[in-house]
């Protein structure tokens, strides 16, 4: 049986780092920029970057509707930071015209940790990831303001959810792709294999 192909949404953000982390986790990832490329993947990573830019480019490139269709049809997706925002059903403080793909019943607050604390690292204990805490790299990160019943909080920091799973969707406010620790990407790769 061949391994299902995982795509990385390559509109903006730290695409290369996610491709490398997926490779290290045993997957063979591809770039996704065009709607046709989305048809060929069994799962999708949405990188960290700038969610307003990713949102605008997804609309411009004709990807937004197809992304929503695939996600609501059950395609596994993992979003880090800006990617977490893209998977949220609602943004508390969206920029004008900013849209999300949605799928996770949660409300996120952008740039939530504030100016004093724009970027920091912290050990984060994450349910579903064995072997001790993951090194959470937070860069102008969102936090999750509230979750609906279907969304499972996998990790919290400062009293706020920072890792959430709902069905085949996974989101982290932090960037495991920047740490050399591939356990979160291994978890997602496993979710894609199980869903296939
Ligand atoms: N602050 C960014 C946003 O709102 C996210 C930052 C990141 O992905 N590191 O999209």
From TrEMBL:
Q: Which organism is it from?
A: Streptomyces albus
EC assignment: the record states 4.3.3.6, 3.5.1.2
HAMAP family this protein is in? PdxT
Where do transmembrane segments lie in this chain? none
Active-site annotation: 81 (nucleophile), 175 (charge relay system), 177 (charge relay system)
Q: Name one GO biological process term.
A: pyridoxal phosphate biosynthetic process
Question: Which lineage ranks, top first, belong to the organism behind this chain?
Answer: Bacteria, Bacillati, Actinomycetota, Actinomycetes, Kitasatosporales
Q: Where does L-glutamine bind?
A: 49-51, 110, 139-140
Q: Does the keyword Hydrolase apply?
A: yes
Task: List cellular component terms (GO).
Answer: cytosol; glutaminase complex
The protein's matches in InterPro entries, at most eight in alphabetical order, are given as: Class_I_gatase-like, PdxT/SNO, PdxT/SNO_CS
Q: Which PROSITE patterns match?
A: GATASE_COBBQ, GATASE_TYPE_1, PDXT_SNO_1, PDXT_SNO_2
**Entries under SUPFAM superfamilies matching the protein:** Class I glutamine amidotransferase-like
What CDD domains does the record tag this protein with?
GATase1_PB (cd01749)
Q: Which Pfam family, any one, appears in the UniProt record?
A: SNO
Q: Which protein is depicted?
A: Pyridoxal 5'-phosphate synthase subunit PdxT
